[in-house]
Amino acid sequence: MTTHTEQKKVRADLLRIAGWVRDDSRVLDLGCGDGALLAHLQNRRGVTAVGVEKEDALVIACVNKGVRVIQQNLEDGLAMFDDGQFDTVVLSQTLQAVVNTEHILKEMGRVARYGVVSFPNFGHWTHGLSILNGRMPVTGQMPYEWYNTPNIHLCTLKDFEDLATRLGFRILERATFRDETEISLMPSLRSTLAVYHFETDRKPAS
């Protein structure tokens, strides 16, 4: 069981993701950052974990946590992984920075039966207010100026749900957050981060 001390070290959205992952399963985390989620899953859920990350410092942080990590740019694809090699694949706060959004989602559906995606919610009410005032939004979830942002495909909750349906994904659960607080009332307007758990058409490996 996760201790209170450990919970404070892991972001609320990552703890929610961890709750969707089955014990002793195989998990791939794309853009795994410093490996916090995978380390938590390895230590507390007994998963077999693999991360993909391109930044040198973050790769080192993963290694220091005992997380197996492959250094690669996600834009190069997931050809190194076999069909159905994993049970769950995670793409946490990275989707909006990927050039070929549909391709990476399809590849997630190829390598795993279950997927988890999180992204900044561009539908938050303050973003609309910023645009009405003639400025692109700059917030805690999207802290960049328009000219130096890595975020190239911003979307709302409804935008992602429509794309997931078109790709044949079945959304199982959704969680929305503002900072560390989970939002249940009017999440499309009040949340800054959305997290989706979905099932693809990938059948379990025999």
Automatic annotation (TrEMBL):
<dbReference type="InterPro" id="IPR029063">
    <property type="entry name" value="SAM-dependent_MTases_sf"/>
</dbReference>
<dbReference type="Pfam" id="PF07021">
    <property type="entry name" value="MetW"/>
</dbReference>
<dbReference type="InterPro" id="IPR010743">
    <property type="entry name" value="Methionine_synth_MetW"/>
</dbReference>
<protein>
    <submittedName>
        <fullName>Methionine biosynthesis protein MetW</fullName>
    </submittedName>
</protein>
